[in-house]
């Protein structure tokens, strides 16, 4: 709900009072859990980071190769189109605030780690390039396609399909 307001009104123009009203709770109840708007964004970004960490942990326990890369794409798509969609939209619409909160560096590291895991065992620059492009297809489906009349399931299916197509084009 907070991320929706940030998207509608902008991060700087949204107050804790408005967030509490949208959630249907008192400002005091919201303040008990989150003292600032920054605390809300950081908490949501930590949830997203934990989700990516779970994908990394799973991938590191699996043999490298195309099947693992495909599964990373599917898991990443499900994560972003579920938990992460509001964070990605916030990031694209409030880049200055996102940068000022210092959240982006950790997410960029995780993004690169996922791409490296997808590119194994070859791990050539072109394999890493394709892996990053595949992950970007999913991320961009959230940040740049919101004006299209697609529900989240259709958007996720299209984005993961495109991402899998990109991986299929990776030279062996």
What amount of the residues lies in strands? under 5%
Query: Would you give the CATH topology?
Result: Tetracycline Repressor, domain 2
Low-confidence regions: none
Please identify the top-level CATH class: Mainly Alpha
Written as H for each helix and E for each strand, in order along the chain, the element string is HHHHHHHHHH
Largest sheet descriptor: none
Indicate the CATH architecture. Orthogonal Bundle
Q: Span from first to last CA?
A: 44 Å
Indicate the radius of gyration in whole angstroms: 17 Å
Shape: elongated
Helix content: over 70%
Mean pLDDT: 86
Count structural domains. Answer: 1
**Which structural class fits the helix and strand makeup?**
mainly alpha
List the total number of helices: 10
Extended strand count: 0
InterPro entries: DNA-bd_HTH_TetR-type_CS (IPR023772), Homeodomain-like_sf (IPR009057), HTH-type_TetR-like_transc_reg (IPR050109), HTH_TetR (IPR001647)
Organism: Nocardia halotolerans
Keywords: DNA-binding, Transcription, Transcription regulation
Protein name: Helix-turn-helix domain-containing protein
Question: Explain this structure to me?
Answer:
There is one protein chain. With 172 residues, this protein is an all-alpha fold. The chain has one domain (37-168): Tetracycline Repressor, domain 2 (Orthogonal Bundle). Helices cover 76% and strands 0% of the residues. The chain contains 10 helices and no strands. Helix 4 packs antiparallel against helix 5, helix 4 (37-60) runs parallel beside helix 8 (104-119) and helix 9 (125-143) packs antiparallel against helix 10 (152-168). The longest helix is centred in the first third of the chain and has 24 residues, at 37-60. The relative contact order is 0.12. The model has no long low-confidence stretch (mean pLDDT 86).
């Amino acid at each position: 709900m907070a991320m929706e307001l940030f998207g509608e009104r902008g991060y700087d123009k949204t107050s804790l009072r408005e967030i509490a009203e949208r959630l249907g709770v008192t400002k005091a109840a919201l303040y008990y859990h989150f003292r600032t708007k920054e605390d809300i964004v950081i908490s949501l970004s930590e949830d997203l980071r934990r989700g990516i960490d779970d994908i990394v942990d799973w991938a590191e326990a699996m043999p490298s190769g195309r099947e693992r890369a495909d599964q990373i794409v599917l898991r990443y798509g499900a994560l972003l189109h579920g938990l992460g969609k509001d964070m990605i939209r916030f990031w694209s619409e409030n880049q200055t605030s996102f940068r000022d909160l210092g959240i982006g560096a950790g997410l960029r590291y995780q993004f690169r780690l996922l791409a490296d895991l997808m590119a194994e065992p070859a791990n050539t620059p072109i394999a890493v390039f394709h892996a990053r492009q595949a992950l970007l297809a999913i991320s961009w489906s959230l940040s740049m396609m919101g004006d299209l009349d697609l529900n989240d399931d259709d958007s996720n299916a299209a984005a993961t399909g495109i991402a899998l197509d990109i991986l299929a084009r990776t030279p062996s």
